[in-house]
Design a protein that fits this description.
2 domains, two-stranded antiparallel ribbon
Amino acid sequence: MLAEFSKKILRHNFTHIILTRLVWAYAWFVWLTSRKIYVVPASAQVIMQGEQNAIIAFWHGRMLMMPMLKPKNRDMRVLISRHNDGLLISHTMQHFGVGTVAGSTGKGGAAALREIHKLLGSGANIVITPDGPRGPVYSVAAGIMQMTRRSHLPILPLTFDASRKKTMKSWDKFILPLPFGKLSIVVGEPMQIAGREDGADILQQEMVRLNEKAASLVCHSREMQLFENKEVLESVRRGIEQSANGETSSLGGFSKFVDDK
């Protein structure tokens, strides 16, 4: 009974207004109190500065900081689901001046696809979360590639990470950045993969790579020393092989590889 009451409260429009306003305020607080590290290739500048439109892609769990990167003077719409969480996202995006398109690769997909092509033709940016709305996490749904076939516009992948954060126990491993830390914003090269049968795989590999790059930029220096040390990496590789073979062997600690001077 309590669970059903909670669901009704969350579906109420007034609750949406309060929650989404709090999310908007928190995102700005984190943004303004964090030191930003940007990695933006020259080929992506025209899109990030609003001089050209594109299909922008980021993972569902990296959504919170993405509205901060909205190019000025260019309409931007996010593809959302028709579920209750999609409505929450829609109301949140409105506070950032970002519109939405309701639909997915399943329910409402055909109508959403027509609207997307119309918006892209008018010069708007379309934002997609390739692993949304239900996952699996960090996996590009094949249906996502349908919207690229007629537009002939590039897909621009991007992501962020944070030095101070909470990773939620949700299917999308949602990252909640905390104030007074570092934010890394990493943008990939515009990708012309419309119509390619392996387009989803190419996009997925690139987006995973960007995640790893963003994480490395906010990683603590001691951790970076470990992961950049070839001896450490070789020890890890041997340990994985021994574990797979059912062997156990102590290789010692990693502290000897780190220079604390």
